[in-house]
Design brief:
5-stranded mixed β-sheet, Glutaredoxin
């Protein structure tokens, strides 16, 4: 079946009219953070069979609504009423309150800073559409950017727009996306590939998983635009097998797109064709590194290789390959649809647009957020995050996962950007943000992250394989208060050695948590030294 833009508009219009025919919509979050959602949906449908308003109310499953700490979350439209910690037994009471006074004991104020202080772009459709419905996505304007791109724009125009927007890679390194696309487009070779890196491995991070579970078609649309721009006719999504719901919804979305001729041969009557395949990873953290990821997709052991040559010139099966992560590609449809100037108008001079973060740890409003680049850490922690629970005080926030650093309270007013976080000894990473209070031992935290890096090292290069193990051994000595003064000197020396000599980003960034805590929380290391102490260090300790 060949479908054109007008037919897609018709499908979208039909779905919009169908949805507008209901007086109320009950939207139930079906993400992994909201348990018992199937029972809740069944309870609402049962309650509606006993209600006069039953035929005028539509119960819909939707993706993540963001505020995971309040889950299970239910949203009532058109009133925009949020209910928190909903149980199946609450369904009848909520149905009885439709069009009347809300159920106060379950009410989640819609004017919470968690909702009002965000700027949603990638997350705009989260909690608003059924992730398993192509029609829902079309009704919300989905695929218009992709179809317009492949039927009305030249590849160079697409790349120019992405470049002008200032979009940078959201996977951690922050490489300019337009420049990467341009490099692949110019690379020699008739066969080219696009690879989506969905191998999200940072502890506490769930940004990519939420996108895959909540708006899988948005990712497919971003891949479609990227493939057209660089001249690829085959794409792979590399996603970890530990995300079964995400994988299931991705597979369904691909089938739906194929049936609608939004993937496959001669897409929407154009000369462009694209196939998208899913490759499951086995949970190896190192496969987040692009050359290790390529090796895994090819069926080999996931280990990195030296660069150059870079994947843009010699990637998958030796062909030019574009690798972007999930959030990067999910930003693309909005840029094409709303314009490069719109995206470039958000954020800071060098860090454009918005960023999705998984806000976790000792924070009241744990969940998934999206904010403009340039918002301060204080605004994120104290306003959107609702501050620290239990009367405790803020101590540090760790950004960038095991590869990031721990930022103390004196830097809470720092605007979030690639450059600012790097200057503080941390990184943006893929978007993990873990908040810690004054009861947290920084030595314990760093020991945990070093154990993670040590266990996830592929072992190919000596600095990472041996260095992370030696650093972990030293950190355990500090953790058990058996360290001597020389251990601190050795630890710092090892950090710089591993950072400067490791083959890939895992080893190069593994020392970051140690170095940042040595910089900001050195007394916590010094007070754990029980052996001979250098006199100068003794003064520092006091």
């Amino acid at each position: 079946m060949t479908m054109h833009l007008e037919e897609l508009h018709q499908l979208a219009d039909d779905r919009r009219r169908e949805l507008e025919g209901f007086a109320h919509h009950i939207l139930v979050c079906t993400s992994l953070g909201c348990p018992k959602n199937k029972e809740i949906i069944a309870a609402f449908r049962q309650a509606l069979t006993n209600s006069e308003a039953g035929e005028k109310v539509l119960v819909r499953k939707v993706g993540c609504m963001g505020l995971c700490a309040a889950g299970p979350v239910v949203l009532i439209l058109p009133e925009e009423i949020y209910y928190q910690k909903v149980a199946p037994g609450d369904a009848a009471e909520i149905v009885s309150a439709l069009g009347r006074e809300p159920v106060q004991r379950l009410l989640l104020p819609s004017d919470l800073p968690f909702f009002t202080r965000q700027y949603k772009n990638v997350l705009a459709l989260f909690g608003r559409i059924d992730p398993e419905s192509l029609e829902d996505y079309l009704a919300a304007g989905g695929y218009e950017a992709a179809v317009t791109t492949i039927t009305r724009m030249r590849p160079t125009e697409v790349i120019r727009s992405i470049d002008k927007s200032g979009l940078r890679g959201r996977g951690g390194a922050g490489y300019p996306t337009g420049l990467k696309w341009s490099t692949v487009a110019k690379a020699q070779g008739k066969k080219k590939y696009v690879v989506c890196n969905a191998d999200e491995g940072d502890p506490g991070a769930f940004m990519d998983r939420a996108i895959l579970e909540s708006t899988p078609h948005a990712l497919l649309e971003g891949i479609l635009i990227a493939a057209y721009a660089v001249g690829a006719d085959c794409a792979y999504i590399y996603v970890r097998a530990e995300y079964p719901l995400a994988v299931r919804r991705l597979k369904r979305a691909i089938r739906e797109a194929l049936r609608a001729n939004l993937l496959g041969t001669a897409i929407c009557g154009s000369a462009f064709s694209l196939t998208i395949q899913i490759r499951l990873g086995a949970g190896a953290f190192v496969c987040g590194e692009e050359t290790a990821l390529i090796a895994s997709v090819e069926g080999g052991r996931g280990v990195p290789r030296p660069r150059p040559p870079y994947p843009a010139e010699k990637g998958l099966w030796g062909r030019p390959t574009l690798i972007n992560n999930v959030e990067t590609l999910a930003n693309v449809p909005g840029i094409i649809q709303r314009g490069a100037d719109w995206f470039a108008g958000l954020g800071t001079e060098k860090s454009k647009g918005t960023k999705v973060f998984a806000l976790t740890g000792t924070i009241n409003n744990a969940g998934l957020i999206e904010v403009p680049m340039g918002m301060t850490l204080r605004e994120i922690v104290e306003e959107i995050g609702g501050g620290i629970p239990g009367g405790h005080t803020f101590k540090a926030v760790q950004t960038g996962g095991p590869s990031g650093g721990c930022i103390p309270a004196e830097h809470l007013d720092t605007p979030v950007s690639y450059e600012n976080l790097s200057a503080l000894g941390s990184i943006m990473g893929s978007g993990g943000m873990i908040v810690m209070d004054e009861t947290t031992s920084m030595v314990d935290i760093v020991t945990y992250f070093m154990a993670f890096s040590m266990e996830e090292s592929c072992g190919k290069c000596v600095p990472c394989r041996v260095g992370t193990a030696q650093m972990h051994t030293l950190l355990k000595k500090f953790q058990t208060r058996t360290a001597i003064d020389d251990d601190l000197t050795t630890l710092e020396s090892l950090c710089h050695l591993v950072r400067n000599t490791s083959l890939c980003g895992l080893g190069q960034s593994a020392p970051n948590p140690v170095l940042s805590t040595l910089n900001y929380f050195r007394p916590e290391y010094l007070e754990r030294i029980t052996g001979p102490v250098d006199p100068c260090r003794q003064e520092e300790k006091q």
